[in-house]
Design a protein that fits this description.
Blueprint: E1 4-10, H1 14-26, E2 30-36, H2 42-48, E3 53-57, H3 63-76, E4 83-86, H4 98-106, E5 111-115, H5 125-142, E6 154-157, H6 158-163, H7 173-184, E7 188-192, H8 206-219
Parallel strand pairs: 1-2, 1-4, 2-3, 5-7
Antiparallel strand pairs: 4-6, 5-6
Length: about 220
């Protein structure tokens, strides 16, 4: 899978990267880490763990800004890339699921979204509610129901980021990728994934961020 690049936005995730980068490398994928202005040793940890490319933001710009920076690198550099797998850095995603995304992309899908809701017993209740609301709102905008629109584990063909200009700087990027890809006519699919929940505190603020997400989804073209 040497044309598969795993793109990881990381903010203060030194320990999380230690859990996932070696496993991703075992899957035969290339690793691109964007250190989003971390105050810990995220950058040096990514380098020591032999991520193929490590880029750094001087200050914390947000998840969307990191993904856009990663997309631009993969488009403009001379690296061989056909598929991009987006993963969170906190260890919630199982690298063994990467193959599910690649297989689906090879079947002709251009965007594949992970689905944590097939086994959501451990998902915090407020996250579950927010996710369901967001999924229905995106369905109303696009006509396609994606069960877990806020899942950060996604797969895209490089064609998607070549043809679509993304602009979200923060967590809205997950919704923007789905809405713009569907509106562009790219075929989207879903794969069930495992989620590993620990006692970490989510960076998403359920009520404030949900309102911001809803305003964004309504406005996005």
């Amino acid at each position: 899978m040497n044309k598969v690049w795993v793109l990881i936005p990381a903010f203060n995730e030194e320990s999380g990267l230690k859990n996932i980068i070696p496993k991703i490398k075992e899957e035969g994928c290339k690793v691109l880490v964007i250190d989003d202005g971390s105050s810990d040793n995220t950058y040096s940890a990514a380098v020591q763990l032999k991520a193929d490319v490590v880029l750094r933001n001087v200050s914390n710009l947000g998840k969307g800004a990191c993904l856009i920076k990663g997309f631009e690198y993969l488009l403009s550099s001379s690296v061989e890339c056909e598929y991009i797998i987006i993963m969170d850095a906190d260890g919630q995603h199982n690298p063994l699921d990467i193959g599910k995304f690649v297989e689906k992309l090879k079947q002709g899908y251009y965007l594949v979204i992970g689905n944590r809701l097939s086994n959501s017993k451990e998902m915090p209740f407020i996250r579950l509610v927010v996710n369901k609301v967001m999924s229905w709102v995106i369905f109303l905008r696009t006509g396609k129901f994606i069960p877990d629109t806020q899942c950060g584990f996604k797969g895209l063909k490089l064609d998607v980021v070549r043809d679509i200009r993304f602009s979200s700087r923060r967590f809205e990027i997950d919704s923007e990728i789905i809405i713009k890809s569907l509106k562009k006519g790219f075929k989207a699919g879903v794969v069930d994934i495992e989620s590993i929940y620990r006692k970490e505190t989510s960076a998403i603020r359920p009520f404030k961020d949900t309102l911001r997400f809803l305003r964004f989804i309504i406005a996005v073209k």
